[in-house]
Amino acid sequence: MAVMFKLSLSYLSRNKIQNALIALLLLLSTLLVSTAIVILANTGNQFYEMHTRTHGSHQILTFEKGLNDPDAVHNWWASQDGTQVSPLLTYRTLSGIILNENHIPNIYLYMFNTPPPPWGVDELIFSGGTPDTVPEQGSVWIPTSMANAYHISVGDTIGFKTGSSTLELNVSGVVIDVPYGAPFSNTARVWMNPTDYQHDLATLAGNENRMMGIHFNDYSMNSVYWERYNRETGIPFLESKMEFEAIASFYLIINQVIGFIMIFMGVVMLSIALMTIGFTISDAILANYRTIGILKSLGLTSQKTIGTYVIQYALLSIVAIIPGLALSIWISKWIINISVSSLRVGNQNIPVQGWDAAILAGVLLFALVILFTVLYAKKARSIQPVQGIRYGMSETDHSRMAGRMNSPWAHWIGFTRLPVTAVLGFRHVFKNTKSSVLTLLLTTMASSVLVLGYVLLTSITGIEQTAAKWGYDNANIAAVVVNKGNFPTTELKQTLEEDTRISNAGWQGNTTGVINPESSATVEGQSISLNLSVLDGSYQELGFETLKGVNPQHANEIAIGVSVARTSDKDLGDLIDIYIEGESVHSSSRASIKRSPTCLFQAESPLMP
């Protein structure tokens, strides 16, 4: 055993750089795989726990178009067994805030007239501030997503733009609002004092809207309830409806993408590490062929020869895997805390699960390294002491190599006319064919990982140049009109027409459509709400691209999104029955739809703010 240990240490000290690189590869693969496992193990845990804790909505109904009576819909759902509903929440829509004298336009706000508790559904949990029944006068409650995105704390003052004036209110509470509180969201629900709401917002131009949440005791039965609703009321629900899957996806998609990418990268790193170990062992056996023959002639058995390599890479694995697991604990906590920061109460750390799975992954990685080491080191069994001492390789390999180098093919290539360095290089390649193939595979895999990382990075960072490829318009500037009654549409149109820097502009109107459940392959009785857009302008000039077909060009044509086409089982040329503003319209699906803002225009030269 002492001889085996000394030989292993000599191998480690002889190839320090090579062994350090192998240890680094094992550390990175352990770090990536274990971190990904922990992230995936915790994906959804905090969301589902908080959704249960707040008795969260499974569906959110929004009444903005006047197509359904909010009170009648609320009363119908409140009378059903197995469902609970929130109060009818009254709100106004605003756009943009002013924080520390900085204008932040890209945030859309639902300013709520806060009803007294209990709500029964979507109860608010305070992450900061003192809990109360309603906000104090002159103050608001904001969601954690908004507070985290713009670094807003309790006691800060926010200016809300209400047209020509600004309403300044203090933040008295930061609350967890599950349906509209996902990270990176640009939509937030702001809770106002009823007196402030009536005094400052109720008199604004525009319509007052309503919203309600529905919680099902058994969410899988929701289609049965909607079928009963359609049958008893005689018409489908024609307003906006947000499903539980849409609510959950905003919380889950980030961790899932991160986790799967890290697992892929970790597996590639591990494959490279294992191939490198195999290549190193094979190369070491060939390089030490004569030495191994001498040791065998002195009594060192094949098992002990293999054991020297097992000890060597077992030590490397322990040195690499244990720090990799330790680092994964810290990194996974950091990623999880960021991705679900909007669900964290105060400064409390989010409980992380899945450490046992991460440790098991580390043990499996260690076992894989030992297994590959044994498989490659078994080549040392075939070494015959006499052949090793005489040839430095097996007699068969020596004869085969001599035949290759003396073959007519070698002479035809011109080995005798090549420089000595080139001949030595080719000789090494032909002598170690398997090692050369492994090197080629390692290079290919490393290149693929680098290319994947580069493509992902450039795709995300360059999204503003390729927005149309991702399903958005390709306009240079987008402006959204919130309160259309007070907006000077004519003046803006005239300004856009007179500005020579603007090449083209288009106005896009948005409304809600509902697919008739009888005209699609959806679950029986379950209608699908759509965000419908109509563009007063050219789809092509504003950069709307399609995956199949073309943009709508004639009457009764519509472009539908990928998910809608898949859910309703529609393709190019199929008819789809949609309720628009309460009226049934038959349209032919032609392409894919792109969600975009209200006013879009492109510039021929750079536009100054």
Write the layout of secondary structure elements.
Blueprint: H1 2-14, H2 16-42, H3 45-53, E1 59-63, H4 70-78, E2 83-85, E3 89-99, E4 102-113, E5 125-129, E6 139-143, H5 144-150, E7 157-161, E8 166-176, E9 187-192, H6 194-201, E10 209-216, H7 222-233, E11 240-243, H8 244-287, H9 289-297, H10 302-339, H11 355-377, H12 385-391, H13 395-405, H14 408-413, H15 420-431, H16 433-461, E12 477-479, H17 489-498, E13 502-515, E14 528-536, E15 557-559, H18 562-568, E16 575-580, E17 583-591, E18 599-603
Parallel strand pairs: 4-9, 6-8, 15-17
Antiparallel strand pairs: 1-10, 1-11, 2-10, 3-4, 3-7, 3-10, 5-8, 6-9, 7-8, 12-18, 13-14, 13-16, 13-18, 16-17
- Structural class, by secondary structure, is alpha+beta
Cα(first) to Cα(last) distance is: 76 Å
Helix content class: 40-55%
**Total of helices:** 18
Low-confidence stretches: 386-395, 589-609
Strand content: 15-25%
The major beta sheet can be summarized as: 7 strands, mixed
How much is the average pLDDT? 75
Radius of gyration: 33 Å
Shape: elongated
| Number of DSSP strand runs | 18
Keywords:
single chain; 18 helices; six-stranded mixed β-barrel; 20% strand; disordered C terminus; 609 residues; alpha+beta; seven-stranded mixed beta sheet
Give a description of the structure.
Helix content is 46%, strand content 20%. With 609 residues, it is of the alpha+beta class. A hairpin with a 4-residue loop joins β7 and β8. α8 (244-287) packs antiparallel against α10 (302-339) and α9 (289-297) runs antiparallel to α12 (385-391). The longest helix has 44 residues, at 244-287. The chain is elongated, with a radius of gyration of 33 Å. The model is unreliable at 386-395 and 589-609 (pLDDT under 50).
